[in-house]
Automatic annotation (TrEMBL):
Region of interest (Disordered), ranges: 173-247
Annotated protein name in UniProt: Fanconi anemia group E protein-like
Pfam families cross-referenced by the UniProt entry: FA_FANCE (PF11510)
Gene Ontology biological-process entries: interstrand cross-link repair
Highest taxon in the source lineage: Eukaryota
GO CC terms in record: Fanconi anaemia nuclear complex
InterPro entries linked: FANCE, Fanconi_anaemia_gr_E_prot_C
Gene that this sequence comes from: LOC107591838
């Protein structure tokens, strides 16, 4: 049955969603846009799944059989549909979604990714973590790989682990990647780094459809292998820096051990020591990257940061935008991304001092990358809120806000909500376009935060502090957001929305 005949089974609004889900890789985002517009025009509109579950006659192996309508669609449509349901299922009846998943499992699902999506959605709806997302075939291959990774001294290193492992058990030859050999004083070190890099590329090409979550027994083993990969990446980066250092002028090379010793020993800096930092004024964008890598700024202790930043701020004239971005990226970003507890006083002092002098580079090289990770923990959120409230001018806060709106491919988390709330409390002077984009984002994110108090408080700030921005279209959008809310603030939110005069 062709697509045109399948689409005729649906009503007008549902047809738009079906066509959107059939639009390839962009199907999920297109369907979400269509669904949000339908909800804005009719806040009570909900997705009907009964049509997808209806039985349809089809020919299978020269026989006429009855199958659910959803099973007659392409694999790409099924994957997009499952991803779309994963986003909006909190606002749909659980029994209907589970029945649809049951209909999908009646089909002979050969695609392992589709099987994993079905199992994951069942887990999320039922609130359980029973069983594994992996098929028995995938589990067997991963166990085999874990056993091979145990022998770290095996000849050929990791590349040999993938020899003989191919589709349907056939032997596959490991591809050889030719790389331009870098000039370095330590040839053996370069060889090891290149070999690690090659084996990682082979690993990326192997079984792309089977990148699944491991079972509890296999997670520690794979975590060890990931640490080995990370160490190899660091080794490769240092090797690259050493190779590129030959292009640095002699006086820059001479400044590296002076600055590094002061960072490592945490000794007192005097004027002669601080003068070594003047090399940052003489670097072009490529040279400053090499210089920061050679200094290993990310490995500097928190105790050495305030004095180092203090001497950086003493430099005159100020650092260029690109140099300031490079220093902030190497010096502060890795430390903040790795925070598992509140930042130390020394780290906070260093961040605030650089942000106060270089606010735009801080927004670009620190705040934006942390938010884009999509895993902003409480420690990161606390530090970013501190910067937003105490260090940034209104136009820089607006820049951060627009960066948050631009992160379309990453779901918000509780940390991002804290940053947005801090921005809203600062009374942003937003344009109508900014507010329209923001309400669209609220509508798309609201199913994920139906029970989140932070999200509810943020909505309340929008409804009480930005009433003048709410027009009839945005009123419908905000009403749609409230329909997902399940906190005790829902009545207060509905009352605040009713008080807005249109």
């Amino acid at each position: 049955m062709d697509l045109k005949a399948l689409v005729q089974r649906f009503d007008g609004r549902a047809r738009l969603l079906v066509h959107a889900l059939h639009s390839g890789a962009a199907g999920v985002s297109n369907a979400q846009t269509v669904f949000n517009k339908q909800r804005r025009s009719d806040p009570d509109y909900t997705l009907t799944l009964e049509t997808l579950c209806q039985r349809e006659a089809s020919v299978y192996e020269h026989a006429l059989v009855l199958k659910p309508l959803v099973c007659l669609f392409s694999e790409g449509f099924k994957r997009n549909l499952l991803c779309f349901l994963h986003l909006i299922h909190p606002g749909l009846p659980k029994d209907r979604v589970l029945y649809l998943l049951q209909c999908l499992t009646q089909d002979d699902v050969e695609n392992q990714w589709t099987c994993a999506l079905i199992k994951q959605l069942q887990r999320d709806i039922e609130g359980t973590r029973k069983g594994s997302l992996l098929t028995s075939n995938c589990t067997g291959k991963l166990k085999c790989l874990c056993e091979r990774f145990r022998n770290a001294n095996a000849k050929g290193r990791w590349a040999s682990c993938f020899e003989g492992l191919g589709a349907e058990g056939k032997e596959t030859k490991v591809p050889v990647y030719s790389q331009k050999k870098r000039k370095s004083d330590n040839m053996d070190h370069d060889g090891d780094a290149q070999e690690d890099h090659q084996s990682k590329r082979v690993k990326m090409d192997f079984c792309p459809g089977e990148e699944e979550r491991l079972t509890e027994e296999e997670e520690p083993k794979m975590r060890t292998s990931q640490l080995d990969q990370s160490a190899a990446s660091v080794s490769q980066a240092r090797s690259d820096a050493l190779g590129s250092s030959k292009n640095l002028p002699d006086h820059m090379k001479a400044a590296v051990p002076v600055i590094k010793e002061l960072l490592d020993t945490e000794s007192a800096w005097d004027e002669s020591s601080g003068s070594a930092l003047k090399v940052f004024h003489e670097c072009d964008p490529n040279e400053v990257e090499v210089l920061c890598s050679m200094l290993c700024l990310s490995e500097a202790s928190d105790q050495s940061l305030p004095q180092f930043c203090s001497w950086l701020l003493e430099l005159s004239p100020d650092l260029s935008h690109s140099t300031a971005c490079a220093v902030i990226t190497h010096l502060l970003l890795p430390k903040i991304l790795s925070l598992a507890e509140p930042a130390s006083r020394c780290l906070v002092t260093a961040v605030i001092s650089l942000c106060s002098r270089y606010p735009r580079p801080t927004c670009q090289a620190l705040i934006e990358p942390v938010l884009q990770k999509g895993q902003t923990g409480s420690a990161q959120a606390e530090l970013l809120c501190n910067l937003v409230v105490n260090c940034l001018e209104p136009h820089h806060r607006l820049l951060v806000f627009r960066n948050v709106l631009a992160i379309l491919g990453v779901s918000w988390d509780e940390g991002v909500l804290s940053v947005i709330h801090a921005l809203l409390d600062s009374k942003l002077e937003r344009s109508e376009k900014d507010f329209s984009l923001f309400t669209d984002q609220l509508c798309s994110q609201s199913p994920h935060f139906s029970k989140s108090m932070k999200f509810a408080k943020m909505l309340l700030s929008v409804l009480t502090k930005y009433q003048s921005h709410v027009n009839p279209a945005r009123h419908h959008t905000l009403s749609s957001c409230l329909s997902f809310n399940e906190t005790f603030l829902k009545k207060s939110l509905q009352a605040a929305l009713k008080r807005i005069s249109l």
